[in-house]
């Protein structure tokens, strides 16, 4: 049943096809929708701790609105403890500092092995806490997590410094040293994957980590902490704190002993992080923030494929992607047909229990998001966009929202400018390529974009002209651990993944030695 | 035909005898088998093949899987290396197999990190480079480190996406053939790796002359290296990389840590019965410490126990075969005749097999044969020097240039020698320190090109520039 659904490209065509063909021989194991929660505390020095304050907070199942369990609530005092442990693990002469770089890679590969071993459990936990369909947690999220860790494992002994022919009788070379204690604040939309994106480059390059996981979705990352210990990482190298942004997150971004902070989340909070970093110790900052990514459909595009991909671009992960294609620009010749087909597709999208293999869309992550999205929908209607389908809650329990499509959207409408982060598609009309490039770039964001066309010159012209960190041509949401990802403008700074992803985690030291006589 | 130290285990002896007969049949027809092997490799490399369309990361995954299997069968492989190559078992298990596993994993990590560039050329063009595999690579492996050399060849070739036809040494084919079964088990598509044992003059020539082999990699003697390069030039200009012989200088200053220097100099020469391309076979000792150094080196050489390499408590096994054995004894005689002082050893050991006593010559001068020719045996040459400029000149006065070392505590001396020595690897206060991350290869007639490290990938990559006209270029 799932195979037929996947082949019919109703789920996530691009992302699912590759891993699914590999998994075709072995079907997805049935999920346990009530997985045991083994780890719900703070992970420091490879040990589990209550919060210093003894406080806890609930994590909610967004399919039902019910509490899954209580989780230790980390605050400044816990961050301080974690930073102390991380610093000790980073001391000159420590096991982590003295370890062969290739051995760091071996540990990362071992962590990947353990995640593969516990793949079904982690996928079920992810679905329980986040609401994303289990089939997707298993086939997509977990697949990408393993690949990301293995990719960075491979880099650990390959990010070379240089020897440099400087003027004068000197021998000059650079060391690529780890930055030190890295604070990493991760979001709730891809809990495990965002954890892997952060840990991979940081650990491959020899850093130590204090990670704050999102209060909405702490459980899967905490389980991985137990695997980090099992894999053999020395104590203090990775420390994980569940907690809230304004308390634990703020403590990290203003900590005087944290050397670098990496944050993925909203642009609004990104501003706060950068401010706090500047006001404290000038810690290095990388940010992955919001987006309002334009998806440009030219009239010569393959219509079926473009409709399919534009739907996937917006609705994947319940619309909760920083790079969601949330402004679909359609060239006027094909506009009407495109809108009609998109609405048909949205109406057919199956919303329901994420543990059911038939489900394509689960609930939004929590009540805040749920209310915010419904708010945007009514603003859209108020400002004159045409509501073509959906528009309300999809169930009376949990945070489900109907797949919603707005047509005749204008650039100045709120729903065309602000990030909704929900299953709400905006379709806009354009005439010429120069016009759409200008309109696409007219945004404070610049995370991703796409163009659908068969024409070589158009493809090259558009990809060259868009001010975004990623441009997809005739595809959307294509990710690989090898390819850098990040934003222009207020969508962030720095790049994650790929070789570029290592740069933010390295500090370059120049060593210059006087020698008797230089020879080339 | 293959000949080496006779194994002591009777059943193993019988198995080897019958196996040798079957091998001989293959050896005699290998040049024809190569035609088939190259065809298979070419087919596996066709556009649209499983290998060509595979994710690069998946190539890496296969190499890691192969490393897992080598780890699983570590004991079998180490035993084969010992029986076939006369290697000390503990060394084969710990060092050779350790290096194999690490090298496979190192190259596995590179597979999806081989990146081309986008290039800002003049004009309205979008230009990028593809780093493509070269194609079908012929690889000829020596007998001194059969499995390590096999892995050093196939790992970078495969991680870059090539297909290979491998000729293991006729003296030591066993571990390579066993690897064939692991390569299949790991899941490499058919035709990607092909292994055909054969004799150098016939099989080696078949490979170096083949019109459908795109690249040849050879590790062995400088003499044969020249033949390979000539053949490549005469036929299809296939790309050539060579790892050849050496006569590596090891320079010991008076301010060195003497204990460490003696030990490194000893291991640097005597490791694996002296059968290393990097052997530190010209030890230059600064005059003030010369006598003491010689005395301690003799004492150290005498400590080694010779015997069956499978047995614990043995530090030196046999030489690989009769040909090598005779060549080494001949060079020892020349040393005696030409006036070097024989300090210990100097002849064969035991009444069976190809064992030679650990031999130390002092008062060696640069014009002696033992100071100029590669011996490839347990024969250590110690010479005296006075000044820095003198020893630099003498160290570089050779057509070889594989490795070198300097022992000193002085920062200026260390860095001066790092620059001055004409060798592909220079060790400071150590010897034989090698690792998969480091490029390795020779200056001058010790070879062409580098293996291992990122540099090693260049030899298995062909760069294609693609230039697309665009309406208007913007930076």
Describe this structure in words.
The complex is a heterodimer of chains A (520) and B (475). With 520 residues, chain A is an alpha/beta fold. Chain A contains 18 helices and 20 strands. A 7-stranded mixed β-sheet of chain A has the order 14-15-16-13-12-17-18, sandwiched between helices. A 6-stranded mixed β-sheet of chain A has the order 9-8-7-10-11-19, with helices on both faces. In chain A, α5 runs antiparallel to α7. The model of chain A is unreliable at 1-25 (pLDDT under 50). Chain B has 2 domains: 11-244 and 442-466, Aldehyde Dehydrogenase, Chain A, domain 1 (3-Layer(aba) Sandwich), CATH 3.40.605.10; 249-428, Aldehyde Dehydrogenase, Chain A, domain 2 (3-Layer(aba) Sandwich). Chain B contains 16 helices and 16 strands. Chain B has a 7-stranded mixed β-sheet, sandwiched between helices. A 6-stranded mixed β-sheet of chain B has the order 5-4-3-6-7-15, with helices on both faces. In chain B, α13 (369-372) links the parallel β11 (359-362) and β12 (379-385). In chain B, α3 crosses α7 (174-186), α4 (74-85) packs across α5 (89-110) and α5 packs parallel to α6. The longest helix of chain B has 35 residues, at 10-44. The N and C termini of chain B lie far apart (65 Å). The interface between A and B is medium-sized, with 33 and 34 residues.
Topology:
The complex is a heterodimer of chains A (520) and B (475).
Chain A: H1 2-7, H2 13-23, E1 42-44, E2 47-49, E3 56-61, E4 66-72, H3 76-89, H4 95-98, H5 101-117, H6 119-130, H7 134-155, E5 163-164, E6 170-178, E7 181-185, H8 191-204, E8 208-213, H9 219-231, E9 238-242, H10 245-253, E10 260-264, H11 267-279, E11 284-288, E12 294-297, H12 303-315, E13 327-331, H13 332-347, H14 367-382, E14 386-389, E15 404-407, H15 414-417, E16 424-430, H16 433-441, E17 448-452, H17 456-465, E18 470-473, E19 492-493, H18 500-503, E20 506-514
Parallel strand pairs in A: 7-8, 7-10, 8-9, 10-11, 12-13, 12-17, 13-16, 15-16, 17-18
Antiparallel strand pairs in A: 1-2, 3-4, 5-6, 6-20, 11-19, 14-15
Helix pairs in contact in A: 2-7, 3-10, 5-7, 5-9, 6-7, 7-8, 12-13
Chain B: H1 10-44, H2 50-53, H3 56-72, H4 74-85, H5 89-110, E1 118-119, E2 125-133, E3 136-140, H6 146-159, E4 163-167, H7 174-186, E5 193-195, H8 200-209, E6 215-219, H9 222-234, E7 239-243, E8 249-252, H10 258-270, E9 282-286, H11 290-302, H12 322-337, E10 341-344, E11 359-362, H13 369-372, E12 379-385, H14 388-396, E13 403-407, H15 411-420, E14 425-428, E15 447-448, H16 455-458, E16 461-469
Parallel strand pairs in B: 3-4, 3-6, 4-5, 6-7, 8-9, 8-13, 9-12, 11-12, 13-14
Antiparallel strand pairs in B: 1-2, 2-16, 7-15, 10-11
Protein name (chain A): aldehyde dehydrogenase (NAD(+))
Active site (chain A): 288
Domain Aldehyde dehydrogenase (chain A): 48-511
